[in-house]
Amino acid sequence: MATDARPKTIFLVEDNRGDIRLIQEALKSTAAPCEIVIARDGMEAMAYLHRQGEFAEATTPDLILLDLNLPKKDGREVLADIKASDALKHIPIIVLTTSRNEEDICKSYDLHVNCYISKSRNLTQLFKIVQGIEAFWLETATLPSSTP
After folding, report:
1. Fewest CB atoms within 10 A around its CB: which of 29, 40, 108, 112?
2. What is the model's pTM?
3. Per-10-residue mean pLDDT, the chain, length 148
């Protein structure tokens, strides 16, 4: 188990307010202390990650939960940009999306996503998914330092 006691930062890139609320609720019921930072579109996500403008003091997240279907800049583009950046490519990314399209799955893994999970519309199942993500990625896995 990871021994780092500092709260982990989860960067949730999601435009659906309902999904944001459900994911936040699921993470509240988990054991690992975490801070959830939200971006509602791909452009905002990249500005945060590159510490631009209002995000100049942003912390590097420990984990990114990325939806594919985003406004302004598609999640596929965000994934490609993150993995092409020497400063960001070490951050684990989980695609958490409604898409079950084989092309999306293959393309995400081609872009070096760490995990691809299709969201469940079943509330209980969605909570289990999010809690499983938290248990593995924040409690079990050893993550790289978030310091650039």
Report:
1. 29
2. 0.89
3. 66 92 80 84 96 91 94 94 94 92 93 91 84 84 68
Contact status, residue 92 vs residue 60, Cβ threshold 8 Å: no
Domains observed in the chain: 8-139 (3.40.50.2300)
Structure-block tokens of residue 117: 């999970």
Which tokens hold the place of 17? 């307010």
Sign of CA dihedral 16, 92, 55, 70: negative
- Give the three-state DSSP class for 40: coil
Cα distances from 61 to residues 87, 90, 112, 122, 138, in angstroms, run: 12, 10, 17, 28, 12
Q: Which of 108, 133, 101 is nearest to 23 (CA)?
A: 133
